[in-house]
Amino acid sequence: MSKTKIAIWFLRVGLAFVFAYASYEICINPANFLKYTPSFIFNFIPENLFLYSFGVAEIALAAWLLTGWKPEYSSVISVMLMVGIIAFNPEYFQILFRNVAIGFGGLALLMLESSARNTLAKPKAA
Predict the structure, then answer these.
(1) Where in the sequence is the domain holding 108, given as residue range(s)?
(2) From CA 57, how far away is CA 61, in angstroms rounded?
(3) What is residue 29's DSSP assignment?
(4) Domain tally, the chain
């Protein structure tokens, strides 16, 4: 197995763990996540429904990352989720600064997956 494939695997597992664990925490301590949710969300959807739906979506994203199916899309969604969380919560940046690293991990996965796909698509010279 090439070093690139191993790096991709590590990034997939690491990102999947982050999303799966966050989903678990939402189920165990939902109140901890309310402060990171923009208040306008609750104009459209009740708190509990949003939190549990978000938790299910995070589990789905974790599973998607692990499958490797259409990896560029799951990587982009991971990055967008981290950017959104940081953008809507600047007052909590001293806690959310870790999400910057998670977002860049998603970008690294995107670049590696794209590079690996392009390498496979190129015919080898004879």
Answers:
(1) 3-121
(2) 6
(3) -
(4) 1
